[in-house]
Amino acid sequence: MLERLRHHVVVATKVGRPMGDGPSHRGLGRAHIRRACEASLRRLQTDRIDLYQAHAPDPHTPIEETLQALDELVRAGMVRAVGCSNFPLTLLLESLVASARSGLKRFGSVQAPCSVLHRAAEGTVAPICQAYGLGMIAYGSLAAGTLTDAGSRRAEASLDCAAAMARLRACAVARSLPLAAVALAWVLARPSIASVLVGASRPEQLRESIQGVGVVLDDALERSCAEVWQRVATQSSQPPGSDGGRNQFTARSKR
Q: What is the CATH class of 1-107?
């Protein structure tokens, strides 16, 4: 299937999580990165990965070793671009400095949580992405289903922003849009966002979400989204879905 559609598909995957019992079968060391990439190529039955991402920081491996290993994959034609996920700002900046100093392929993208309910990245990762020309890939944009029509109704009883969420859903209904589409349109409108990952367990959920592609939020919808965040920002607990989710698909790339 992938072989027939390869020129129409962007293949992105990650490296770093345990793939075996031994210490060399996890993390961001050179040996594991090479072995994991070769295994991914075999499983995907393709000759290259378009975006290869470090899944999470590896405290046991110097960032220079990770960058060197990724650079070797790019030079070998096995990988076209590299990125990272969930890197703290200090490590992200350290990686950019190390790449420039050693002439290595630098990270071109950063995965981070971003949604109407979770906007911390706007003051942390997003400015760095804009300053250095990195593409930010948002995940958790539906807040583990909270920012869907059914999920928002179930969650309202436990959210301090229940009234604001109800008004946002009403705004979406008045425009014949599912709440998921509005939530994704809001994320896609952020200037630092290059692409969004969407969680879906059923085809109809995906169909609802992709309606957000191309939607331009009017002032009323923007105000409603802002009101939800203002209510959430006063809570002490972490907003729903701020740590992302599984079953994710890339909804759209803006670049």
A: alpha beta
Burial class (CB in 10 A: 0-12, 13-18, 19+), 17: exposed
Residues 6+ apart with CB under 8 A from 114: 121, 122, 126, 136, 138, 139, 140, 141, 187, 190, 193
Structure tokens at 177: 């849009």
Strand partners, 113: 139
Within 8 A by CB and 6+ apart from 221, the residues are: 168, 171, 172, 175, 182, 186
Instruction: Please list the residues that pair with 248 across neighbouring strands.
Output: 199
CA distances for 164 relative to 119, 124, 229, 244, angstroms: 16, 25, 9, 22
pLDDT tens, per residue, the chain with 255 residues = 677 788 888 999 999 987 767 666 789 999 999 999 999 999 999 999 999 999 999 999 999 999 999 999 999 999 999 999 999 999 999 999 999 999 999 999 999 999 999 999 999 999 999 999 999 999 999 988 889 888 887 776 666 778 888 899 999 999 999 999 999 999 999 999 999 998 788 899 899 999 999 899 999 999 999 999 988 877 645 555 554 443 344 444 444
**CA distance linking residue 189 with residue 112, whole number of Å:** 16
Residue ranges covered by each domain of the chain: 1-107, 142-191+201-255
